[in-house]
UniProtKB/TrEMBL annotation:
GO CC list: membrane protein complex; plasma membrane
Family: Belongs to the ABC transporter superfamily. Macrolide exporter (TC 3.A.1.122) family.
Name of the protein in question: ABC transporter ATP-binding protein
Keyword line: ATP-binding, Nucleotide-binding, Transport
Lineage of producing organism: Bacteria, Pseudomonadati, Bacteroidota, Flavobacteriia, Flavobacteriales
Organism: Maribacter polysiphoniae
Domain of life: Bacteria
UniProt-listed CDD domains: ABC_MJ0796_LolCDE_FtsE
InterPro entries referenced in this protein's UniProt entry, alphabetically: AAA+_ATPase, ABC_transporter-like_ATP-bd, ABC_transporter-like_CS, ABC_transpr_LolD-like, MacB-like_ATP-bd, P-loop_NTPase
């Protein structure tokens, strides 16, 4: 029997913008088992990014709970939540969130340093991932010296470096060409299969959607549909 890895129960998020409440997410329940490869889709403003941020413990819900790998993260104190994220979740953001003063190699290895992974293993893992995303010639380049697509590939490599149980990706292929997108999806699919890493993507990209085995559609902050499919 598959283990539940993500259980978002009755999640809601309301923002009070100019005194007018905006319901970004409304009573969403999502149950995801270990090793699933899931695309979260919907029009802009449907609440996809807000939902991802709440599932990842980056944003506090107005109501509801999030249980990740049997730990209710919505009840964790901040220091324990930070530690849980460090060891269990890989994030890919639309805005990359790379550290400007660090090289590509250093950005990818940063989380591994925080995890106190031995230097030799850290170096091997970082170099392998940067090779897989086609950036072996950019090891010592800082984010400002890289194109948007190259920065996105560094961000994806960083998310995968720690071999997290869960990867939450917000539009991970938004700035990539077709070849780079195909390579990244192949890497993620391999990690998903071999390590049982669970992937949850927020995306508009048909290439990502077709690769997913399950597609959850959000409209106006609510789940409109949740369907299984055969990936292409």
């Amino acid at each position: 029997m598959a283990k539940t890895i993500i259980d978002a129960h009755n999640l809601s998020k309301t923002y009070n913008a100019d005194t007018v409440p905006v319901k970004a997410v409304q009573d969403v329940h999502i149950h995801i088992e270990e090793g699933e490869f899931v695309a979260l889709v919907g029009p802009s403003g449907s609440g996809k990014s807000t939902l991802l941020n709440m599932i990842g413990g980056l944003d506090e819900p107005t109501s509801g709970s999030v249980v990740l790998d049997q730990v209710e993260i919505t009840k964790l104190p901040e220091n324990k939540l930070i530690d849980f994220r460090l060891h269990n979740i890989g994030f890919v953001f639309q805005s990359y969130n790379l550290i400007p003063v660090l090289t590509a190699k250093e950005n990818v290895g940063f989380v591994l340093q925080l995890q106190k992974i031995p230097k030799e293993e850290r170096e091997k893992r970082v170099l392998n991932l940067l090779h897989q995303v086609g950036l072996e010639d950019k090891l010592n380049s800082r984010p400002g010296e890289l194109s948007g697509g190259q920065q996105q590939r560094v961000a994806v490599a960083r998310a995968l470096a720690s071999k997290p149980k869960i990867v939450l990706a917000d539009e991970p292929t938004a700035n990539l060409d077709s070849k780079s997108t195909a390579n990244l999806l192949d890497i993620m699919a391999k990690l998903n299969k071999e390590e049982k890493t669970t992937f949850l993507f927020s995306t508009h990209d048909i290439r990502v959607i077709q690769k997913a085995r399950r597609v959850i559609t959000l409209v106006d902050g609510k789940v409109e549909s949740d369907v299984q499919q055969t990936p292409k």
